[in-house]
């Protein structure tokens, strides 16, 4: 008996946190998160720290002895929160914003507790099969044909890497999976075509895959920042003439700079005629296709070979969840399947092993949060929320257009507005750029709203992305008022 | 007033889940998770479903209308849990097991609520700086020198991809970042060396990066499954003679098959002499180095160019968190930095932008869970828990060795034991393989424990990985009893 008691004590000293403590701290954290969500818009969206502040506030050496949870949680408030940029804030309008909606947060909590790893079907059947179900729901919502099948990656960068890796694998005669690209006189230089406005992740993927940055040819855009088809055709013809082998076009639905939409149907025509892989980056814009009257933005995408949409951008799913679709899962599998003995299972012929479809072997239970979010809000509820963002963006664009000292710099197709200050009589572009850069910093410097910027036709451009689930008229309006006020200040002190 | 009321109603209809509901469901889920953690060992570790069962239990079309959280949560119990393999179960002994400890789960919950994305410093200073702090703590715990700096990726596969991409970037004369590998007569075939026992992710990385599978040369192992140095040297010499350019060696500390440890100091000598990149895959084994008397397993790794350790494998951090270290962060940055205008910030010279160090642009707040886990258990507490797993593994190995019908098939350096049934007088290897394969399926078929397998020297080998934070003597003992019982059954019915 004594021995049993002692062994039990030892077990308690090792092991995990006692469940009673987990329960207590867990309840406290639910209230912490609820309070955070309820009052996040009263916080400054941007932190006031300088580089190194957070780091310097923390011990530089790990603790040898255990610390108490209440101290750890208190330190989150004292040292971590002051360094947090509040992505889950209704006035976070930079980049493409992202919402962790409540059902998504709760699903992530469950997913962390289950801690499953869906590398093969057997290692967690529910991961594999719920991923199939949730991605097929999303496929239907996006209006993509049934032959598209999906797989979840962490980010659009990773999805695009896989799309272009498939384009390489599709060049069957080159046998690059076995032989690679190097030291082979029979392999020509290869070329991928993107618009000047494609996301930097496409170039990063091209570099990573061993094609080199020079394998990317950037096609000029028209006055609405869309890839020019005649220029694409001319580039392909010129490359072929020079012994360079075209293999891939990446089109974008909702470019990061200004949310322009490449003419996918015409690009698909070119790809079909030229036998090129078509990858569509709809990471941001794609979500809007779940709104019936916006479905047109994916016109032509049914002919894409691969396509990425990020529910963690504009569908209220916490980061990270990037949905990758392809009409040729067999090519994806051919490119990435490698099954060592220790991962063979007796189900390999009957079930899908998701590790065969990409670089990462491990796989969190990400589908759970997508499934929770779709069910809790419903397709119609999600569409209503996105529609409201479109309304707010149009409204903001209207304010900009109507104002004598501001101007719109790009069409507004989604929830993002590109604009700049352009006071009457100010014509020097250099001075305008300086003014707008100062305007951005002055506005963000108030820490009440977070805008980002880009350059369009050489013009320094302010961007407001409206896409947080809690963003209301009042938030957008106060940002607009702030921008006007800061411009007045700048012009007054100039 | 009426207008305000109506507008408020509309706002409620859109927006997120009401905070009162979040609070209610959140508290329910904390209790759900607490109950799960308290009683997980009473569940079968393996699910009873067949391929397609989970999928067929769920609607094939997305709901148009919102559903109630209580129905969604109820469906987790009804349809998802029956398809879950319980990785967070103390008798999950397959692959390398993984624990979501309570502080790790709670940190993930916070991380999902904050939903920050640390692509650049400005987009969330706390993500960048806590990642630096937590990875530097871990570096100290692993006994790596101060010039190693770290970055978090999702999985070891991704970490290894980045290590080998760095090896390519280090071949400065080839300028592959700009020019790529294809269509260049001046670029020879390239070669990477791994042991026969290296993880399949190394080959996957080599394929992904455009070298082709044939760029991998597998070096034979000695009787302890460690890379043979003379064979490595001979392979390099032969390749050089044939005009193939060696560029990289991947050594493993804790191979997936049998946890063998390549002779890193001798490999480092070869790499130094031959000017080859040395990447060390210590994804599993590395964690053990936090135990002072086990630090020797990383001997020589201070000379590695890059190294990966996975706290989500054997340091009680929920998936996914892979820690990647390098002595040359400048090369990693050179390989992956690409900064478009919309991601330029005024802090770019003063702060580190983590997007510059890898393929994914987006970055969850993963450091939080590592920081929580190290603080809650303390370095000593983590070491004590790992030490206990080593004790349990030695104990299991002792039982195997002492049993007349079983034998050990590999040295036991960590928490994993490779063994097989070998009844007295049974000498036919084919029959032994069949017997052990049937033994594995019979044992796992009870769903009380989950073992996996590998092949060692042609022998079908059972593997038990002991590494869950809640695994106690009783769990290991009951698995051992079950294996013996199943062997008896098989031999009786044979």
Question: What would you say this structure looks like, in words?
Answer:
The structure is a homodimer of 494-residue chains. In chain A, a hairpin with a 7-residue loop joins strand 8 (406-408) and strand 9. Mean pLDDT of chain A is 95; it is low at 1-11. Chain A contains 16 helices and eleven strands. The termini of chain A are far apart. Chain A is globular and about 65 Å long. In chain A, strands 1-7-6-5-4-2-3 form a seven-stranded mixed beta sheet, sandwiched between helices. In chain A, strands 8-9-11-10 form a four-stranded antiparallel beta sheet. Chain A is an alpha/beta fold and 494 residues long. Chain A has two domains: 117-364, Type I PLP-dependent aspartate aminotransferase-like (Major domain) (Aspartate Aminotransferase, domain 2); 375-493, Alpha-Beta Complex (Aspartate Aminotransferase, domain 1). The longest helix of chain A is centred in the last third of the chain and has 36 residues, at 367-402. At the A-B interface, helix 1, helix 2, helix 3, helix 4 and helix 5 of A face helix 1, helix 2, helix 3, helix 4 and helix 5 of B.
């Amino acid at each position: 008996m004594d021995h049993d008691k002692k062994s039990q004590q030892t077990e308690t000293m090792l092991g995990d946190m006692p469940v009673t403590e987990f329960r207590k701290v867990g309840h406290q954290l639910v209230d912490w998160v609820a309070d955070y969500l309820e009052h996040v818009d009263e916080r400054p969206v941007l932190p006031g720290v300088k580089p190194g502040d957070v780091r310097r506030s923390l011990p530089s050496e790990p603790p040898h002895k255990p610390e108490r949870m209440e101290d750890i949680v208190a330190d989150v408030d004292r040292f971590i929160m002051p360094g947090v940029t509040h992505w889950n804030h209704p006035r976070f309008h930079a980049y493409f914003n992202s919402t962790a909606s409540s059902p998504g947060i709760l699903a992530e909590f469950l997913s962390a507790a289950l801690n499953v790893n869906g590398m093969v079907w057997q290692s967690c059947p529910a991961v594999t099969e719920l991923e199939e179900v949730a991605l097929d729901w999303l496929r239907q919502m996006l209006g993509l044909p049934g032959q598209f099948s999906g797989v979840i990656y962490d980010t659009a960068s990773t999805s695009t890497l896989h799309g272009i890796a498939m384009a390489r694998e599709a060049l069957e005669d080159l046998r690059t999976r076995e032989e690679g690209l190097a030291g082979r006189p029979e392999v020509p230089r290869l070329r991928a075509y993107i618009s000047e406005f494609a996301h930097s992740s496409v170039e990063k993927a091209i570099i990573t895959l061993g094609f080199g940055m020079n394998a990317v040819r950037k096609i000029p855009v028209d006055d609405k920042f869309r890839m020019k088809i005649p220029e694409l055709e001319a580039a392909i013809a010129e490359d072929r003439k020079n012994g360079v082998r075209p293999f891939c076009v990446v089109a974008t639905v909702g470019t990061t700079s200004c949310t322009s939409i490449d003419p996918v149907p015409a690009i698909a025509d070119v790809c079909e005629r030229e036998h090129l892989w078509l990858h569509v980056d709809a990471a941001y814009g794609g979500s809007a296709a779940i709104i019936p009257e916006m479905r047109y933005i994916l016109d032509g995408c049914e002919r894409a070979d691969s396509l990425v949409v990020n529910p963690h951008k504009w569908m209220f799913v916490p980061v990270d969840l990037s949905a990758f679709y392809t009409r040729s899962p067999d090519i994806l599998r051919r490119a990435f399947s490698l099954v060592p003995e220790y991962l063979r299972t007796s189900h390999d012929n009957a079930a899908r092993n998701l590790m065969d479809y990409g670089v990462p072997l491990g796989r969190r239970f990400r589908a759970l949060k997508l499934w929770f979010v779709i069910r809790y809000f419903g397709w119609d509820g999600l569409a209503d929320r996105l529609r409201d963002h479109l309304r707010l963006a149009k409204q903001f664009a209207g304010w900009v257009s109507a104002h004598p000292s501001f101007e719109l710099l790009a069409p507004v197709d989604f929830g993002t507005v590109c604009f700049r200050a352009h006071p009457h009589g100010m014509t020097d572009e250099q001075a305008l750029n300086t003014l707008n850069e100062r305007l951005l910093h002055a506005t963000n410097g108030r820490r009440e709203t977070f805008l980002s910027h880009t350059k369009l036709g050489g013009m320094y451009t302010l961007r407001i992305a409206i896409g947080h689930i809690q963003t209301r008229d009042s938030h957008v309006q106060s940002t607009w008022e702030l921008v006007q006020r800061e411009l007045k200040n700048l012009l007054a002190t100039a």
